[in-house]
Amino acid sequence: MPTSSPVYHEMKQILALHHQKSALVLGHLYLFISCLIDCSLTKTSSKHDENKEFYIREAINFVERNYEKAISVDDLAQVCNLNRHYFSRLFKEQMNISPQQFIIQYRLSEACELLKNTTKTLQEIAEEIGYSNQFNFSTAFKRHYQISPNRWRKIHK
């Protein structure tokens, strides 16, 4: 235990005052217990934050590995072993975007790579990134980028 820690300081005070008046020792004993609780809560809070980051990383990794399949928020919550509503709130809190929006953005960024680097049709790209048809893909693309996939391809080729 570092000698600069509040726990160490209070323990040292208690040992130095053990022969003094009991009220003084008792006061330092309460401070000592308070310091222990504070340290415990700090470690628990830190561990909780690490768990949050772990869950988000797990969800993102799942999307990266499975974006071409149908993925729901329920699937992501299940991967993390979390309740759907808690997972959604946690994801939004950590990423500033909903899980569903993240899935869409990830797929569309993959679509941009395919549009730029291949000659695949829009239907082929749509299927490759997890859309059931070209229309849904084009609608999502245009909503996100304010430009059609074909026009985007012409500009970026």
UniProtKB/TrEMBL annotation:
Lineage top rank: taxon: Bacteria
PROSITE patterns: HTH_ARAC_FAMILY_1, HTH_ARAC_FAMILY_2
Keyword Transcription appears in the UniProt entry: yes
GO MF term list: DNA-binding transcription factor activity; sequence-specific DNA binding
Record domain HTH araC/xylS-type: where: 57-155
Record key words, sorted: DNA-binding, Transcription, Transcription regulation
SMART domains referenced in this protein's UniProt entry, alphabetically: HTH_ARAC
InterPro entries per UniProt: Homeodomain-like_sf, HTH_AraC, HTH_AraC-typ_CS, Tscrpt_reg_AraC-type_HTH
Full protein name: Transcriptional regulator, AraC family
